[in-house]
User: Which sequence fits this backbone?
């Protein structure tokens, strides 16, 4: 939306196809870790927290994709998510979703739209 504040994440060409870039931002006193992915040429960003339990999905290694690169997966309990929607389709929390982070692609860069991210914990 016009007039919304943006925060730089990275250059678009830094995110390879079916790969990810982690980033952090502040929301009040809370620091939130997110990850940005590129899937079929489009970009999506989510809070790095499984919908099953509030823990990081990647064990700190910035690896969110299944071996075949078709889905996102939490390495702790095996929850599997659709990259384009964040919806869990297999594992311990089917029907639940990752928390999306609003982004904008502008002038060859990816920007986080500075909106409040809902937090349940």
Assistant:
């Amino acid at each position: 939306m016009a007039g919304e504040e943006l925060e730089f994440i990275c250059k678009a060409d830094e995110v390879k196809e079916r790969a990810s870039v982690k980033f952090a931002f502040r929301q009040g006193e809370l620091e939130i870790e997110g990850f940005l992915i590129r899937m079929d040429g489009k970009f999506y960003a989510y809070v790095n927290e499984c919908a099953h339990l509030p823990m990081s999905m990647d064990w700190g290694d910035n690896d969110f994709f299944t071996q075949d690169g078709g889905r996102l997966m939490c390495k702790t309990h095996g929850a599997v998510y659709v990259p384009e929607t964040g919806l869990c389709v297999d594992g311990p929390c089917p029907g639940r979703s990752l928390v999306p982070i609003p982004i904008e692609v502008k002038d060859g860069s990816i920007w986080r739209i500075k909106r409040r991210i809902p937090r349940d914990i």
